[in-house]
Amino acid sequence: MGEFALGQAVSRFEDPRLLRGGGRYVDDMVLPRMAFGHVLRSPHAHALIKSIDTTKAKAAPGVLAVLTGADWEASGWGDLPVPTGMKRRDGSPSYKPRYPALVSDRTRWVGDYVAFVVAETPHQAVDAAELINVDYEPLPAQVSTAGAVQPGATLVWADCPDNIAFVHLEGDKQATDAAFERATHIVKRSFTINRVTAATMEPRASIGDYNATEDRYTIYTTLQRTHSYRTELAQNVLKVPESKVRVVAGDIGGSFGMKSAVYNEPALVLLAAKVTGRPVKWVSTRSEAFLSDAQARDNVTEAELALDAEGKFLGLRVRTIANLGAYMQASSQVFVGNLGTLAGVYRTPSVHADVTAVFTHTNPVRPYRGNGRPEAAFVIERMVDCAAAELGIDPVELRRRNLIPPEAMPFKSGLTFTYDCGEFAKTLDMALKLAERESFPARRAEARKRGKLRGLGLSNTIERAAAPGFESAEIRFDRSGTVTLLSGSITQGQGHETIFKQILCDRFGIDPATVHYVQGDTDKIAIGEGTGGSRSATLGGSAVLAATDKIVAKASAIAARILNVQPGEISFADGIFSAKQTNRTLTIGDIAKESVNPRFLPEGMEPGLIATALYSAKVANYPNGAHICEIEIDEETGHVDVMRYSVVDDVGTVMNPLLLEGQISGGVVQGVGQALMEDIHFDTDGQLLTGSFMDYAMPRASDLSAIEIGSNPVPTKTNPMGVKGAGEAGNVGSLPAVANAVIDALSPFGIDAIEMPATPERIWRAINNARHGASR
Amino acid sequence: MSSHAITVTINGRVYRATVPARMTLVDFLRDELRLTGTHVGCEHGVCGACSIMFEGRPIRSCLMFAAQADGASITTVEGLAPEPGGLSVLQDSFWETHALQCGYCTPGMLIAAHALLMRIPNPTDEEIREAISGNLCRCTGYKQIVDAVKLAAERLSGKNQNG
Known about the structure:
The complex is a heterodimer. Chain A has 18 helices and 28 strands. Chain A is of the alpha+beta class. Chain A folds into three domains: 15-21 and 467-617, 2-Layer Sandwich (Aldehyde Oxidoreductase, domain 4); 31-139 and 200-292, Aldehyde oxidase/xanthine dehydrogenase, a/b hammerhead (Aldehyde Oxidoreductase, domain 3); 295-465 and 620-772, Aldehyde oxidase/xanthine dehydrogenase, molybdopterin binding domain (Aldehyde Oxidoreductase, domain 4). A seven-stranded mixed beta sheet of chain A has the order 3-5-1-12-9-10-11. In chain A, strands 7-15-14-13-8 form a five-stranded mixed beta sheet. Chain B has five helices and five strands, in the order E-E-H-E-E-E-H-H-H-H.
């Protein structure tokens, strides 16, 4: 096994560049003659636009163009892509709102797109935007998720009479209802999964460039997939052949799902580039990011768990109202693809979910790390704890009674998913040991002496990763034997370059420093699906492996000619091609140099050592893990300190433990953020109250203790490397683990619910109410 | 709008420029000098991505105007390494412990940690967490950043000769 073999803690190959300030994010890019765009956004959550006067703005210094909804309508371009294929409760198609890049008549959230100003400098564009006179007639706004379906609710779309975009039903309702009929205990709870935002440290940015002589568009933008993005942009928006569009991603400063949509700005910079004949750049400020980035989560859920006399789960019923915001972006609806997470690691025979997706006058909602998984994991894992409390059973014991044993694999769960492998009891035991749960009562007692309420919460979750799809990889040896490696996947920080180079370099024994890695450019990469849903190691990694197989096959045939032996006599190991009959050996580089020499090419073989592989998977994999969170609450202030956090994960074969630790740790902290501090909060008029980093509280280093991470890898047989997705696992388990810990700490007061985020104020109020009666 | 002639020493090199009064220091570094390693994350001084060393202290370059930097000596992420193409002990420690993912907050984190190690050569975990708590990172969960700063401190104080 070489130093870059899978499983080694290899430091990332992309890091020295980033550490020296050599990143190349979209905002770092400059094109000749570049102009700058600024979006004028709606100050009202819901308003009629009675008129727009751009005369003064157009005359302002440096202004090159001022575009409004009328210009968008006149452009002949299509609206942004809106998903279809879902149904309403009566079976009719889901409501499909228009999604123009600039609105003409009505704004639907604070941040909606009213005009786009292009000028010589960013400041000139901002100054000119202030000279646009928009006559608004403000209207009442519908902000709350649950309120959207109440009778008399203000409509977001006049021809969508109940604000319901679609309804999604999943699972066997009859069997689930029957389970409740024979249940001994039924536990009922309501939960609110609050709205949060990805808040990537790099705000979104776009540069549009139109080459009139080629009639070709180039968009440089912040995204996590290039090729399907190009399809949507070409077909839906620009209405040109896809070959007329180039999509380029720079380095991406975090995405977590948020940057995967075709947003309004790429369409606007391209239109502006066409109108002005100049490349046009737009870079989001942080304030704009809060007003215009798609946000996430946001649902209200009622859940019921049916148990028999022994505490065995018989059925789970879940009804959810999910907030889509004002528009539906592509993928806004795909959270329902992860409802299977509700079944958890338990044998619950039947689960039924009923999801109603509603419009409100708020930012559009789309995937964010976990995309439906953390929400569902929260529901099942909170329900198990609630049931344990009601039945007086230890939460660990109740879980043990219901866990799926390894010998039951493959196991068809009560909702949609079929798990191929996993050792849930062992993983849980390992986590309990890592967290020293046995001695927790002593820590709790000791904390009590200090006036602190100590609580321990756990979760034992499973999710689906790498949903069926494909990814591409290409290996290009040049004539001197060095390599360019191309992937259709795109890193936003996960470390794709490292993992893919590890696979390549381990196989061929080549120096990663000599390998050039290329991603994120549709003119360079043949095809690809991009990053999302914890798929890149599984699909992108398997594609690289498949491409190395092709290279080995071809190189072996060429090696046989060079060594003058029969093709079957070549063996390949540790990067060396050899034949028993001769003491000569060849490296892959040696063969690459000869691969264009007709002398050494077998009859009919194309010259060159270049291979493209598309790997497709029809079966997903199921990463899982046990999280244990230990917190202390200051009884007087309600402040929560995370004292310990322990995770034991099963993400299959560990490709690089260093990177895995980063993925798990980062995911956990995002979950801790949502559970304890992060909240997108609108007032009743739809004004965003948490619109800056001063108001939207994100975890800082001083908020957290160290996270202890263990691993119980159970390799999956569903892909050649045995890997399971690792990108979202940390986030999935952490929401319920933290919430369960908070409730456990507050249990002496009889408190069994705290809405997320569990801020000091909410906790203090709950304690105060419990002490003095709920009337206070 | 008024313009101001300034002379600034950045990473040991003297720059002379005339800047508009409203130009922030970070825009000057990025747009005028093309030192794009310093990033803009929030423009309101809360995320720390734009941190630079200014007269030996870490500051937010989004909260300062370029005109205010006249006569100052500045170090940006591009100037942390002892020689071009190299890495400082701190940068190398970030590399070794996987203290960065997307890399966007990293230049600011490096500056915050660099300033800490200048002040306290052997910081405790709490001191490290406190020192970088003005810098937001959305990817790492901070653990591996704390590991990196500890490792750098050990190496710099000679405890870890492998450095």
